[in-house]
Amino acid sequence: MRVYNTLTKKVEELKPREAGKVQMFVCGPTVYDLIHIGNARTFVFFDAFSKYLRSKGLAVEYLQNITDIDDKIITKAKTERKSAKDIAENYEKEFMADMNALGVTGVTRYARATDHIPQVIEQVKKLRDKGHAYQTKDGWYFDVKTFDGYGKLSGRTAEMAEDGVSRIDDGVGKRNKADFALWKHPNSALPPDSSGNANALMRMIDGEPAWYSEELGWGRPGWHVEDTAITEHYFGPQYDIHGGGQDLMFPHHEAEIAQQESASGKAPFVNYWVHVAFLINKGQKMAKSVGNFTTVRRLTEQYSKEIIRQYLFSADHRSPLEYSEEIMESFRFAQDNLKKTLRRMAVYSERGAFNVDAPGSSDRLSAISAEISAALEDNFNTASAIGLFNSMVALVNQLIDEKKFDAKAYDVFKSTLDSVNAVLGIIPEARPVDVPSDIADLMRRREEARAAVDWPGADAIRKELESRGYTIDDTPYGPILSEK
Ligand code: AMP
C-alpha cells in the first residue's frame, strides 16, 4: 500500500523494516479532561489504519502513550484540590470508556508516562553525556543547535522557531528559544533523596509530582521525552510508523526526532510519519482553548459508534473535516438507510428471493469492491472507500428491486460488508426482529385486506402496527416489518 509520508512529503510504498511486521506509535491523550471529537478523529483513524494493516496479514504492534504527568494535569489538580494522580487516573478511565464506545480496539499497548520514568531519566542522561542537554535553574534542556536535522519534518528551522511559536517551552537561561525541556525541576528545591534510591521514586513538592535522579536532580519529564523513552523501550531506537494530529508536527514530533536520533546516533528514527488533519467547527480547529468543542461522551450518547465512525472517515485524513449537528444528522439518515438494506437482505434471504439467475450482477458489485480495496491501498483513503461503499448499497437496492440480485451477488456483497466492517467498523449490527404472534397476526390480516383490495382496512392495520412500534416496508418480495 502507499502512504503519504510527512517526512519526505511524498506518497510512498509502505515497506516495513522487518518483513511481515509493523511497529506503529501514536501520540495519546493528556488525561486532564474528557476528550473531544477532534481528538477522536486522530484515534479512530489510526485504529482503522492498524486494523487495515492487520487485514493485509501484517503483525502490527500499535503502541500509544498516555500523558499522565503534565502542567495541565497539575493545574487542574490544584484547582480541584485533588492530587495529580487522582486527576490522571480518573480521566484515563474516562478516555478508555470513550475509546470503547467508539469501537477503538486496535491498540496493542497503552503506556503511561509515569510508568516509564527510569527510561526517561536514562534518555536524558544519554543526551547530557553526548553534549545535547544542558541544565538551567528550571531543568534540563535540549540544545537544538546541536542537532543538524532540526526542522526536517516540519520544514521549520531552529532560527524560525526563534520567532516564538505556541507550545515552545518558556524558561529562563535557555541557549536558544527553540530549546525544549527534557526534565523539569519543581518550583521549590528539595534536598537530594536520602534513601539514595534514584529513579522512579515519586514525591509531591508543592502539589507537583517529582522524581529523583542523582544526576539530574528532582524533576518530571518534559513533554516530548516521554514518547521517545517509551518507544525506545518497546521498539528500540528505530521503527516504522509514527502518527498523530497535524498540530503535533511542530514542535512535538520535531523534538522527538532530535532527541532520539541524538541519543542513539541512528537515523531515521521513524520511516513514515502520518498526520491527521483537523476536525473543524465553523472554520476553526476544534479545541478546548477555543471552546468550540463537542465531547466524545456527548456525541456517543446521541449517535451510535457506527454513525460517528462513518462521519469521521468521510473526509480523507489529510483534509479538514467539518463538524455540525446537521452533518451528523445526515449520517444518521445514511445509517438508517443501510440498516433498512441489511434488514431487506436478511428477510429476502429467508424468503429465497435470491434464487434468481442474473448474470452480470455480481460482476458489477465485484468491480466496486475492487475499487474500495484500491482506495484503501492508496494512502488509506477512507472518504473514497465510504463513497464507493454507499454506491454499492444503492446498487444492491436497485438490483433487488429489479429482481436481479442473485446468490452470487449476495456473496460478493456479504464479503465486502464483512471486510469493510472489520477495518472501518461502520456497519450496524443486524438484529433479527422478534415478531410476537399477535403482531404476526396483524401482518397476515393486513395482507388479506390488501389481497381483497380493502385499502382502508389495510391502512388501519398499518396504523395500529405503527402505534405498537413497528414500521412496514412493502417490497417486491412482500412486506418487511421493522422495529421503529
Ligand atoms: P492532546 O490531548 O491535546 O495532546 O490531543 C490528543 C490528540 O488529538 C493529538 O494527536 C492531537 O493532535 C489530536 N487533536 C487535537 N485536536 C484535534 C482536532 N481538532 N482535529 C484532529 N486532531 C486533533
Automatic annotation (TrEMBL):
Pfam families in the cross-refs: CysS_C, DALR_2, tRNA-synt_1e
Gene Ontology biological-process entries: cysteinyl-tRNA aminoacylation
Motif ('KMSKS' region): 285-289
GO cellular component: cytosol
SUPFAM superfamilies assigned: Anticodon-binding domain of a subclass of class I aminoacyl-tRNA synthetases (SSF47323), Nucleotidylyl transferase (SSF52374)
Residue window of motif 'HIGH' region: 29-39
Keywords of the record: Aminoacyl-tRNA synthetase, ATP-binding, Cytoplasm, Ligase, Metal-binding, Nucleotide-binding, Protein biosynthesis, Zinc
Cysteinyl-tRNA ligase anticodon binding domain boundaries: 434-474
Its EC number(s): 6.1.1.16
Localization per record: Cytoplasm
Catalytic activity: tRNA(Cys) + L-cysteine + ATP = L-cysteinyl-tRNA(Cys) + AMP + diphosphate
Residue ranges of every copy of the Cysteinyl-tRNA synthetase class Ia DALR domain listed in the record: 374-426
Gene3D superfamilies referenced in this protein's UniProt entry, alphabetically: Cysteine-tRNA ligase, C-terminal anti-codon recognition domain (1.20.120.1910), HUPs (3.40.50.620)
Keyword Oxidoreductase: no
Cofactor(s) listed: Zn(2+)
Enzyme superclass (EC): ligase
Domain tRNA synthetases class I catalytic: 15-330
InterPro entries (UniProt xref): Cys-tRNA-ligase, Cys-tRNA-synt_Ia_DALR, Cys-tRNA/MSH_ligase, CysS_C, Rossmann-like_a/b/a_fold, tRNA-synt_1_cat_dom, tRNAsynth_Ia_anticodon-bd
GO MF assignments: ATP binding; cysteine-tRNA ligase activity; metal ion binding
Binding positions for ATP per the UniProt entry: K288
Subunit structure: Monomer.
NCBIfam families according to UniProt: cysS (TIGR00435)
Family the entry assigns: Belongs to the class-I aminoacyl-tRNA synthetase family.
Protein name stated in the entry: Cysteine--tRNA ligase
Organism name: Candidatus Yanofskybacteria bacterium RIFCSPLOWO2_01_FULL_49_17
